[in-house]
Design goal:
The structure is a single chain. The chain is of the alpha/beta class. It contains ten helices and nine strands. It has helices spanning 4-7, 62-86, 98-101, 103-112, 132-147, 165-171, 207-213, 218-235, 255-269, 279-287; strands spanning 28-36, 91-94, 115-118, 153-154, 176-177, 187-189, 196-198, 241-247, 274-276. Helix 2 packs parallel to helix 4 (103-112) and helix 8 (218-235) runs parallel beside helix 9. The longest helix has 25 residues, at 62-86. It is globular and about 55 Å long.
Length: 299
Amino acid sequence: MAQPRERGPYSAIVDRPPLPPLPGGNRIIFWTIVNVEVWDITRPMPRMLLMPPQGQVRFPDVGNWAWHEYGNRVGFWRFHELFERLGIKPSLSINGRVCIDYPRIAEATAKAGWEMVGHSYDQQPIHVEHEPEQMIQKTLDILQKHTGQRPIGWLSPGFGQTFQSSDYLAAAGIKYTCEYPYDDEPTRLSTKAGPLVTLPYPIECQDVTTLAVQTQEAPYFARKCIDAFDQLYKESEKRPKIFSIAIHPYAAGQPHAFKYLEQIYDHVLKQKGVLVWNGREMYEQWYSKNPEKFAGPMK
């Protein structure tokens, strides 16, 4: 059993040399992660927008299930049109079960060339899985079968982990994880199967945190993300930076929120020196060419 600090020792960003320069004279990476999930109506819902009246929990919880279902029926397709229009191929954090329950989404994203990122088979924490190693393999196998792409990235639902899960992921062939959002830069974790790279998945610049957990209005989400980008963009004068945004069809895909999501892309993409990459591109075209220059153990 290894705790996070044992896998990835503390490293102050001010003590590190700048990361390798980005290609093409660019200075900041813009990374989008879209999360598509299956909420099983026979289980408690992963998240609740509608609180149970008088504290009486509903089962089945059709209201909150329908909130998520709207995202997959309607909200996702707003995202799909946006990225087709902008020529962006985001990372898709996807439950393996999406290929069974929502094959239309799996087909559309595979055709569009999105990157597949494993997001467990079902939308539930990995620590409740009876056989997490087998679940990881099942997820990767089904995504490869239905999309033609075997993921090299992974994000467990709700950042759920065990102290052993990093070992399981590396042994299954996963190269990078989104589960350690503790830095602005990629780092390395040690595992029994070799190093596992961390990429800076956002906690703050994601729609569920802002719109559902903090219950902020959609204009605030746009302002928050733009402010974060502007700060990182300023810092990127001295060292390469990554600005990442995570979105869910049932949150930022809602009609009242979508135009504010578009405002974020309008602002970011009009700046000079912005490189639009997904996680696989970051790993293969940046990290893999200079692994020794990133913080963390090499083994």
